[in-house]
């Protein structure tokens, strides 16, 4: 044994094991959430939907955050972390089984119901796992643990769209209202069925793993007295008394809405004739052509465009690494203002200028999304007069923006085209910039910043 290196105690080994177990959950929910992007493109063709109807897939998923976040917080107050995680995984598994029924029945309505159930489980999982990852170990290294856990989440969001495009979009075409052949429809439904069958297996394995590890997780988790008196109404009333909690909730609503709206429409946007649908520009970049698996035919198919969506989320993954370094050196409010302004400018370019180059600009927006969620979260927690638990609950509820902004964006794309629909997230980013400037100008925080997780 090297001098100066102390062996881990039994308690430290148990805590480390619990942390590693919880970290596996971050990958799982990142992977599942990012499958929504290719799924929106797939159901549009498979079920012959309008842009608005296709975006209901995102709405069914993200509306769970609005309905389940605060009840999940109450659940966590009343039960131990291990039990809450098991309830979350069981709910997700039930949702996957509903998705299998939906694909075999060929019913879009059941697809929406299944997505809502899966997302409800993910919401409970986030409420339980996020603070747990921060607390499992020395408080001095809580930010490091959260960043490490979220790196696995980012890997999941990077892989999900690529695999989803490969499974869901083969032979699916939506340009000019093109009809999807019955063979392509069957292949797409079979791909969705296969994906959720494998996800169900993964969740079942995680459930068994956490059932065996639940005592270790509960022992390692920080002790907290069960609060059976805390309810949804009391928590909501507390946050409504804090202007900064409301302001921050609005900013989270707008950010998640913009991020999801861009991601869910990205494949359709890149596949459109005005962007890459009839262009060979991506083929001229060797690495990009190989990543998208371009088949050499003129233009970019919907499946090839769907693979490129991974680069949008990959930009956020890289941006988190860069952003973490920048946030350690510069004022968080000003960085948020700069990043949101650049994102708004990129959206303006896509909406007003468009063209082949707009495809590359749109993919780059993910890089500037990277720091927004945690920075908004932290700035709000620092300034809110409500408790951190109540404020966090409201901010998680505000993720429901992912249910509404994409539908609005789909309405605009239906009327004015995919490029101009970027005007909706552009407005969202400009309003986030206003929030950032207001946070900089506000009085000094009344309490120390809390550790937060990245979305």
UniProtKB/TrEMBL annotation:
The chain crosses the membrane at residues 16-36, 56-76, 83-102, 108-129, 150-169, 189-212, 244-270, 334-354, 360-381, 393-412, 418-440. GO terms for cellular component: plasma membrane. SUPFAM superfamilies: MFS general substrate transporter. It holds the Pfam family MFS_1. InterPro entries: MFS, MFS_trans_sf, MFS_TsgA-like. The keyword Cell membrane applies. It is a multi-pass membrane protein. The keyword Signal does not apply. PANTHER family: L-FUCOSE-PROTON SYMPORTER, PROTEIN TSGA. This is MFS transporter. The lineage of its organism: Bacteria, Pseudomonadati, Pseudomonadota, Alphaproteobacteria, Sphingomonadales.
């Amino acid at each position: 044994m090297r001098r100066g290196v102390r062996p881990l105690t039994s308690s430290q080994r148990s805590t480390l094991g619990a942390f590693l177990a919880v970290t596996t959950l971050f990958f799982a929910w990142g992977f599942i959430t990012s499958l929504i992007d290719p799924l929106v493109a797939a159901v549009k063709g498979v079920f012959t939907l309008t842009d608005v109807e296709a975006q209901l897939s995102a709405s069914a998923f993200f509306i769970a955050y609005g309905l389940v976040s605060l009840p999940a917080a109450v659940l966590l107050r009343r039960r131990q972390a291990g039990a809450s995680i098991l309830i979350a995984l069981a709910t997700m598994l039930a949702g996957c089984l509903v998705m299998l029924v939906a694909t075999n029945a060929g019913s879009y309505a059941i697809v929406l119901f299944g997505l809502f159930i899966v997302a409800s489980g993910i919401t409970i999982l986030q409420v339980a796992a996020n603070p747990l990852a921060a607390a499992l170990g020395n408080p001095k290294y809580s930010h490091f643990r959260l960043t490490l856990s979220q790196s696995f989440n980012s890997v999941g969001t990077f892989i999900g769209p690529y695999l989803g495009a490969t499974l869901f979009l083969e032979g699916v075409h939506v340009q000019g209202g093109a009809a999807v052949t019955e063979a392509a429809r069957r292949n797409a439904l079979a791909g969705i069925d296969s994906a959720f069958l494998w996800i169900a297996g993964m969740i079942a394995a995680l459930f068994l793993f956490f059932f065996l590890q639940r005592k270790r997780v509960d022992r390692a988790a920080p002790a907290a007295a069960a609060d059976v008196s805390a309810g949804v109404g009391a928590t909501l009333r507390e946050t409504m008394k804090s202007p900064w909690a409301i302001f921050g909730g609005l900013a989270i609503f707008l950010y998640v809405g913009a991020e999801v709206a861009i991601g869910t429409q990205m494949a359709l946007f890149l596949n459109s004739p005005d962007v890459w649908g009839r262009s060979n520009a991506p083929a001229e970049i060797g690495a990009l052509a190989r990543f998208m698996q371009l088949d050499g035919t003129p233009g970019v198919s919907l499946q090839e465009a769907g693979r490129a969506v991974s680069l949008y989320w990959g930009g956020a993954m890289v941006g988190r690494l860069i952003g973490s370094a920048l946030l350690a050196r510069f004022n968080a409010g000003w960085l948020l203002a700069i990043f949101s302004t650049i994102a708004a400018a990129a959206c303006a370019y896509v909406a007003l200028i468009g063209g082949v180059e707009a495809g590359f600009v749109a993919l780059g927006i993910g890089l500037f999304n990277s720091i927004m969620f945690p920075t908004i979260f932290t700035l709000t927690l620092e300034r809110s007069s409500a408790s951190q638990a109540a404020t966090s609950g409201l901010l998680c509820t505000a993720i429901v923006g992912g249910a509404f902004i994409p539908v609005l964006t789909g309405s605009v794309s239906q009327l004015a085209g995919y490029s101009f629909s970027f005007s909706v997230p552009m407005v969202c980013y400009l309003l986030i910039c206003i929030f950032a400037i207001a946070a900089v100008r506000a009085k000094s925080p009344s309490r120390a910043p809390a550790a937060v997780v990245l979305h």
